[in-house]
Design brief:
Elements: E1 6-9, E2 16-17, H1 19-34, H2 42-52, H3 54-62, H4 66-81, E3 86-87, H5 91-100, E4 104-108, H6 113-123, E5 130-132, H7 146-155, E6 162-166, H8 170-178, E7 181-185, H9 193-202, E8 205-207, H10 210-218
Parallel strand pairs: 1-4, 1-6, 4-5, 6-7, 7-8
Antiparallel strand pairs: 2-3
Amino acid sequence: MLRYPCLVLDHDDTVVRSEATVNYPYFCRVLERFRPGQEITPREYTEGCYHLGFVNLCRQYYSFTDQELDAEYLGWLDYVRNHIPELCPGMDRIIRRQKQEGGLVCVLSQSGRENILRDYRAHIGILPDAVYGWDLPPEQRKPSPWALRDIMERYSLSPSRILVVDDMKPACQMAREAGVEIAFAGWSREDFPEIRKEMRGLCDYSFDSTEELEKFLFDSLDIHGIISA
């Protein structure tokens, strides 16, 4: 029996390594266009997205207007069509095993539906059961719990039947409001000890590798490195 009949996976830096290879380089291009002379380091980008969320990062650090945010998003959609991020090693195995054993895989991300599906086709050969991305109206996007509640209603699931897996703090707020457990995807945050420490305290579980997550989900064993909040 599956520990969690439904996995709700973040996409960027949980399933694919997109921050360093796609999202950050593109945002540097955006700054060159919208705010000539202003720059952002990789660490500032990660920490800004973690503490504020991407939209608030743009608004608070660079005073982006709604029109600039819309233009940034449309340009990003075009950019990612030609830039496929690498898979986080082991996530393909987890997703396939979840599906093979009769479970659901839903994606709840700040990426767009089009590129999420593209990445699943390219790396996994399996499509998610549902995708909740940046295409949603703003009030329904992460960190809103709307998508989690929709999953529960759509598939007749109680909160205890769902596990969110994410690497960023906005997901913690979302999961708590929906009464759903959350696991920290620590494999993409090796270089950010402060983020790792805070997320371990905020999340129900923390995993330093996809192998640890796989064992927790499917082997029902006590795994070294799992931290229960």
